[in-house]
Structures are given as C-alpha cells and as structure tokens.
Amino acid sequence: MSADLERWRLILGPAAERSTGGLSQENAGRDAALDWLYGRDDDLGKRDVRRGGARGDSDDRSGGDGDSIVTTVDWLDTIHRLFPKETIERLERDAIERYQINDVLTDPEVLGRIEPNPALLKAVLQTKHLMNPAVLAAARRIVEEVVRQLVEKLSVQVRTVFTGSRSRKPSFHRRARDFDLKRTLKANLKHYRPEDRQVAIERPHFHSRTSKRLEQWQLVLLVDQSGSMTSSVIHSAVTAACLYALPGLKTHLVAFDTNVVDMTSEVDDPVELLMKVQLGGGTDIARAVEYAAGLIENPRRSIVALITDFYEGGSEARLVHTTKQLCEQGTQFLGLAALDEEANPSYDRNLAKRMSDVGAHIGAMTPSHLVEFVAERLGT
C-alpha cells in the first residue's frame, strides 16, 4: 500500500480497508493506539461506525498485527514510540479533558510516564484532594515541571519589560539587545559593496537605555478559586512569583471562594502554593475586594487585579460600592475575566459592566500583558 493510501486508511478507519488495503505493522500500531482513545466516542454509535478497542476491550480490537494495547501505561508507551511530540501532546490532552480517563490521574505508574503539560496540571489541581499519598507524590512531579516551564517563559518577559526602555540617545556600551540596526545601516551605506550585495559595517551603533523607577507601588492579585478559573489560578501563581522579587513592587496574592486566604507568604514557591489551593466552592467576590482594600497603603500607587468570572455569590451592590471607592481614591482596578495564555473569557457581563461603569478596567489578559500593564504604571 502507498503511504498516501495508508494515511487515508488511518483517517477513515477499518471500513475503508476494502478501498485502501491493509496497514503496515507500524501503522497498525498507530491505528490501534488511536482507536483505543477515540473508539470510546459515543458519536460513533450514532453514526453506526463500529470501532474495535474502545474502552480497553482486548477481545474486540482492530489493529491487525500492531501491538496489543491493554492498559493506559501500554498506550502511553505506544504513542511515545509511534507519534511525534505534537501529536503525543494532543492525544494525552484528549485522554484527560475529552474522555476523562481516570487512571491517568490515579495510577502512579501512569503519572510517572506521562509528559507534563498544562492540561494535565489543570486536571491534577482539580482532583488532588481525591489522591492518596503515593499518587499525590507522583502528581507533584507534573506540577513542578509545568510550573518550572511557565515561570521560565514568563521570567524572560519580565526581565525584558523591567530592564529599562530604549531611548533615542546613542550608547557606547555594546550589547546585542541594544543594537540599533536602522542607524547602523544608515551610517554605513557608503561601504555598500554592489558585487556582494552587502554593507560592510565599520561602526555599529547602539541604543542607550533609561531605567524604570520601581518604587512605592503595590500590586494585589485577587484570584477566584472556583473550578472554572483553574487556568487563571495557575497563571496568577506564576505571575505573582515572577513579580514578587522586583524591587519597588510589593506583591500580594489572595485566593478566595466564600472565604479569603492570603497566600502572599508562599508566593515565592508557586508549586507549594498550587498544591495548597482548594478549587471549587462558592464565590464571595465582594468580601475579597474588601480584603484587598484593607491592604492598600498608598491608593494612588496601587493596583488591584481581580481575576474572576464575575458570577457573584455574595452582594453585588457591596462589590460595586467597594470597587467605586477604590477607583475614586486613585487605585488602578483591573477586573480580569481570564488570566492565561488563551485569554478567552466566559463571565457575567452584566456585573462586569456595572463595575466598569464605576471605574474598573474590565477585560482578559495573558500573563505577559499583565506584566506590561504593571510595568507601565511603575514607570510613571
């Protein structure tokens, strides 16, 4: 069978074999791995599509001469052997989010082999209260690795934003990040060599930088712990950890449901912080905002970032009133319906509008956008 026909057979399933022919041993293994996962889709029955191997049934499995797939551990080994990294990540994400394959989160052996990724981190945080100590220890590895990756990525952005902005003045300090390409080309055009189509750079030029003044500012991150906000909780912990060490910025991290928990003392250890967060429960946003108001030292040099879906279980009137008071005293008030890489919010727009009407800035941000917002305020 040609490679193209085998690809079509993998896409269309066993019913297409009369037209495409069979599969090679390696592709039969891929087909069995895909069937083990996607064969459990309820929609297949409605369309009268019969697939083998669904739900781990070893006696009703397609896949020809491919490896027999019996357990989640076997399946993980197979996909890591047969698929590229991007495909593995998608398959593991679907296993967790779409099909809720429970032993991904309850079997220490599976947790020890699965590739750490944000989807798995979310699932761990949502179910860690159900895990026994052995499983929790294995799950912690997932939390540590994904948080490390997120902190690494955001730390680069924080350093870029807070190391100072370029000025128009030239500099004698030769640093690659400050290389002035436009000015360099303009100054060296007389050295253009037509035969080589190159400009000989005899004198490179560089920008100077002006440092931002980082003093007397306060940032209070208020994070809703309800289940729908899991991604935002993760990114809030990472963002707080990256901002916490900045000179001149006093960072607080406060988690809330119907209760308010000040987690600032643990903000420098986002892994430990996330392992202690309790997701779910009710929501009293007004109570959290009142707590934040009590932390403010200098209203005109303070930022309150409320990260919530705005579905208030407490008093909406009290929430709007406290928000208005904070805005009127000069505090920058951000109401973020999402703080994550997607920034696709789902929230109560009516309450968000009421808060916007009294002075709050309402929207959704990625962590890097929040860092930029804070940097702009600190530079004033």
Automatic annotation (TrEMBL):
- Region (Disordered) residue ranges read 48-67
Q: Where is the composition biased (Basic and acidic residues)?
A: 48-64
Instruction: Write down the Pfam families for this protein, in alphabetical order.
Output: VWA_CoxE (PF05762)
InterPro entries per the UniProt record, alphabetical: LolB, Uncharacterised_CoxE, VWF_A, vWFA_dom_sf
Describe the location of the VWFA domain by residue ranges.
Answer: 216-375
Coiled-coil region:
none
Q: What protein does this entry describe?
A: VWA domain-containing protein
From what organism does this protein derive? Answer: Glycomyces terrestris
